[in-house]
Design goal:
Blueprint lengths: L17 E2 L9 E6 L2 E11 L2 E8 L4 E6 L13 H23 L1 H41 L4 H25 L5
Antiparallel strand pairs: 1-2, 2-3, 3-4, 4-5
Helix pairs in contact: 2-3
Amino acid sequence: MGILGFFRRKPKDGIISFDGGPGDCMETKLLFALDAQEIEGQVTRRTPGEIEVKITKPYENISMRIQIPHFARPFTDLTAEWGIDVAKKLLENIYRICEMIYANLEELIEQYLTIKKRIDNLKPARMNADKFREARKRLKKKLKKGSIDNIEYQKRLISIRKQRRSLELEQDSGSKLEL
């Protein structure tokens, strides 16, 4: 599924109505108009302490839920008529979030690709850091064996550190994140 897979629009059709009662759970469908747009959704989970809705029109398969904290449950019940109002509000929030994402989709995709590129650049940097660590360990072993003296060890260590810094600077300059 691509980036746009979550935001498929459905064609406009249907009658504004409400099917289902406060006791229904999986079969409660919500249908109402908001900003001259018909919003359709379904309550997928409804208990006294939790309600979850899924939008089915004009977007699909995006859900949101709310849970009442355990200590507050004696005072509220989402299976009552009040739960339908909460479900409509959740559906409205889903719709508004989807509209905002859909309106700014190009910019969001651009930012996503920039961040993904930066993450991909970090992976080789990590591998290079391990490589430099191993080179430093080998150098230390040579010093302990007596193959090289302390002055030669310091010269080579400085060289290794310079190589690592220059590599880090290359990677940082190539993948600056602009917000």
